[in-house]
Design goal:
119 residues, mainly alpha, two-stranded parallel ribbon, 55% helix, globular
Length: 119
């Protein structure tokens, strides 16, 4: 398999790249950034963090490797609860889960949160 920081260029539509990377055993960039974050403060943010991290530990690889988005839906949920109120984070997470179809996918993270993660 590839190293996580391998430089791989894929000639695919953007909505297919995260799924292809996972299929090759490569963790997409925003997944890695979110995985490196420490446990947040705040009750709901901490609960979402623990739930999502626990889910990723026990879910089958076949489920995790078919995720079409970067960051994955569980990481998206974790980051939404970190930076938004609980009601807004829940709404954004549900919206993301409903958009998870074979036709959708790609890089999906609000610009303000991208800047926070990369900053």
């Amino acid at each position: 398999m590839f190293e996580d920081d391998a430089n791989v260029e894929l000639d695919l539509p953007e909505n297919m790249i995260p799924r292809a990377l996972r299929g090759l055993g490569i963790t997409p960039a925003f997944d890695r950034l979110i995985d490196d974050l420490s446990e947040p403060d705040g009750f709901f943010a901490r609960a979402a963090y623990r739930f999502c991290r626990g889910y990723r530990r026990i879910r089958p690889d076949a489920v995790g490797n078919r995720c079409a988005f970067d960051p994955s839906c569980s990481r998206y949920c974790e980051i939404m609860f970190r930076y938004h109120s609980a009601p807004l984070a829940l709404g954004l997470t549900i919206k993301r889960l409903y958009s998870c179809t074979a036709a959708n996918g790609g890089f999906d993270l609000p610009d303000d949160i991208k800047a926070r993660l990369k900053g």
